[in-house]
What does this fold into?
Amino acid sequence: ASTAGDHNPNFLGNEEYRDYLRMSDCSQVTDGGAALLLCSEEGLKKLGVDRSKAVRLRSYHLATNPLGRTADPTRMDTAGVAFCKTFTDGEVKLSEVGVAEVHDCFTIAELLMMEAMGLEEPGKGVNAVKSGKTTLQGELPVNTGGGLVGFGHPVGATGVKQAAEIYRQMKGQCGDYQLATVPNLGVMANMGGDDRTCFTALFENQ
It folds into this structure.
């Protein structure tokens, strides 16, 4: 349906896929790849890479939740644990973060991720969107490159692409969607299944 979307009647029709989900609410599984180079301070020196071209992985956490142990399917408790641990370990408050990349496999997932992050109270995630809080000019820009819905979802590469997106914002490489204020801190969250696993990471510009 995504092929030549501006001329594709299946995409333009935006048919209802499931209750409350239309075609445009669903990310499209795509081919793709992404890569990161992880190294120590010593490694940077050996490679001859200036520190200003790197970002620091300040903290990270992987949380899991076995199938059948979800008390409320409208809350991403696993993601909430991962976010909380990452912010605590990184000694950072959400209000200090300048950009976020969250796993929006469906539009509702982005709202639930923002609630799990602490940006809004449970059930109020839509308020962050309506208020403009998550736009490029907002308090906390979310999914600046389009997220999974807008960019595509190459599954195994998605999480790395999210980290790369934060890196690009921190280094002023995002062209016409570059944030006016280059972020010093950025957080990402990549999910597996319906909140079964969630990996979060906090990056700091150098």
